[in-house]
Amino acid sequence: MKVLNEVQKEQIHEILEKLQRLREQKSLSIEDISAQTLIRPTLLKALEAGKFEDLPESIYVKGFIRRYGDVVGSDGNALAQYFEEISSPPPPELESEEENDDVEEKVSKYLPIFLPYVLVLALLVTASVGLFYIINSRRNAEPIASEKQPTATTVNSPTESISTPEPTTPTATIPTATTPTPSPTPEAISNTIEVTLELQGESWLRVKVDGKTEFEGILKKGDRKTWKGNKQVFVRSGNAGAVLVSLNQKQAKPLGKNGAVENMVFTLDSDW
What we know:
Layout: H1 6-25, H2 30-37, H3 41-49, H4 58-71, H5 76-86, H6 92-99, H7 101-141, E1 154-156, E2 161-163, E3 193-199, E4 203-209, E5 212-219, E6 224-229, E7 232-237, E8 243-247, E9 253-254, E10 262-267
Antiparallel strand pairs: 1-2, 3-6, 3-8, 4-5, 4-7, 7-10, 8-9
Helix pairs in contact: 4-5
C-alpha cells in the first residue's frame, strides 16, 4: 500500500493503535481476529505494526479495517471511511477555497466600514425633510390678521374738546420650530460566525477557521466543542450522522447521514 506523506502515516497509525487496544481489552489474539474476519494473520500483524509496504492496495486495507473494527466493538464503517479520506489526496474544491481567501478578506474588510456612514446619511436626510415639513405647516396654519388703526374722535362743546386716545395694536407672537434630535446610529452588525459541534457518536473531524486548521482528529460521543471565525468555518466529518451542528447558538441539526463523509462551509450568509 502506498502512503503519500508522514502526516497520513501518523493518522493511519492512530486507527491501527485503536484497533489493537480494543483487541487487547477484549483479550482477543490475532488468530481470533483472523478466524472472525477471514483475514490472514500475517496481514493482520502487518496492519497493526504499520508495515504499509507488506499490505495490498488501500481499497483492500479499507475492508480489513471495517471488519476488524466490527469484531472488536468499534464502528468499523466510520473507521473505514476515515481511513479512505486520509489515504487519498485532498479534494480540489478545498484548494480553491484557500486560494480565494484573499478576495473574500478584501470584501469583508471594506463593507462593514462603509455601512454605518450610509445609515447616518439616511438619518440626516430624513430629519431635514421632517423639519422642513413642520416649519411650513405651522406657517400656513398661522392666521394673518390685518387690523385698521382707529382715528381720534373730537367732540366739540361750548366749553372744551374731548379727544379719544388711539389704542395700541397688540403684537402677535409666532412660535419657533424646534429642530428634532437625530436618532442614534444603529449598533454595528456582528461579523462573528460561531459553530458548535456536539457528538452523538464517534467521528473523525477536521475544522478550519478562516482557512486555518484548528482541529483534526476523532471526537467521541458526548464531546462538545465550539469554534468562532470572522469569514468562514469549514467542517469535514467521517461520520456525519453522529455530528450535531449549531450555527450562532441556533437549534442544532445533524451534519448528514450515519457513516457518510460530509463537507460544510459556514459563512455570515449561511442559513442553517
